[in-house]
């Protein structure tokens, strides 16, 4: 097992959240310097902590600002995914795909406010809010623009931004959901603000170096069944109206 893969669970649980900021900063700054054995011990600790919080997570009904989660496309059963692999055509930016792998740490995304704004950690996300999704491992934001996707010629979806998680307005997505707030069992859509396209999966699969992963695109019509997403595994922050703010985790 590689050192980078051992690191992933620890950095994910640290996320961007309450009391664990110092851990995630250490992960980001000293990833290559950490001793393998120490990393393995930390990862074991994180796995135990995940199981401890499983029951408590049942009470966290909403997706909140600062939550770290995986999104699965309802039609194709693939999780929204990214990695340090760039498109060979189009924008040449970091690629975004769908993966069947449930345990892949490259499928975690941090929920945060729209470009240029901040949201209070633990605040439930309202349906209709404009949000960004930051890829936890690479710190780039889910992004789209008027560029053709590589396999179907639909709109390209990429991951974009600097090493501080900042990009531009092409990172903004409107949350569309059926209730007042984003509930964890909701089926949602994400509408790209700049281009008015919907986050979707085309069903086409890539070859080397990301063989078997599916193309993620901007879809023109909200009526397409490929535009539906649901929350899967994640690390959820309890809403601020509770007396104690703490992390909640679940494996759905």
Automatic annotation (TrEMBL):
Domain of life: Eukaryota
Stretch forming the signal peptide: none
Transmembrane region(s): 36-55
Key word Transmembrane present: yes
Keywords tagged on the record: Membrane, Repeat, Signal, Transmembrane, Transmembrane helix
InterPro entries: MIR_dom_sf, MIR_motif
Pfam families: MIR
SUPFAM superfamilies for this protein: MIR domain (SSF82109)
PROSITE patterns linked: MIR
Domain MIR positions: 60-114, 122-178, 179-234
Identification of the protein by name: SDF2 factor
Gene: Sdf2
């Amino acid at each position: 097992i590689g050192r980078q893969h051992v690191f992933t669970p620890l950095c994910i649980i640290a996320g961007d959240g309450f009391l664990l900021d110092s851990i995630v900063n250490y992960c980001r700054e000293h990833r290559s310097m950490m001793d393998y054995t120490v990393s393995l011990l930390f990862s074991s600790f994180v796995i135990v902590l995940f199981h401890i919080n499983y029951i408590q997570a049942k009470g966290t009904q909403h997706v909140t600002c600062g939550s770290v989660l995986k999104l699965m496309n309802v039609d194709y059963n693939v999780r929204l995914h990214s990695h340090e692999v760039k498109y060979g055509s189009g924008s040449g930016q970091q690629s975004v795909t769908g993966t069947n792998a449930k345990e892949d740490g490259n499928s975690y995304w941090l929920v945060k406010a729209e470009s240029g704004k901040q949201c209070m950690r633990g605040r439930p996300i309202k349906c209709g809010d404009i949000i960004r999704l930051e890829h936890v491992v690479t710190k780039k934001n889910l992004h789209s623009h008027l560029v053709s996707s590589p396999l179907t010629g639909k709109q390209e979806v990429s991951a974009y931004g600097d090493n501080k998680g900042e990009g531009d307005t092409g990172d903004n997505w409107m949350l569309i959901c059926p209730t007042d707030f984003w509930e964890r069992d909701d089926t949602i859509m994400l509408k790209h603000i700049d281009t008015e396209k919907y986050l979707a999966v085309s069903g086409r699969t890539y070859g080397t170096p990301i063989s078997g992963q599916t193309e993620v695109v901007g879809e023109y019509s909200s009526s397409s069944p490929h535009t539906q997403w649901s929350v899967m595994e994640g690390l959820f922050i309890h809403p601020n109206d509770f007396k104690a703010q703490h992390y909640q985790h679940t494996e759905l």
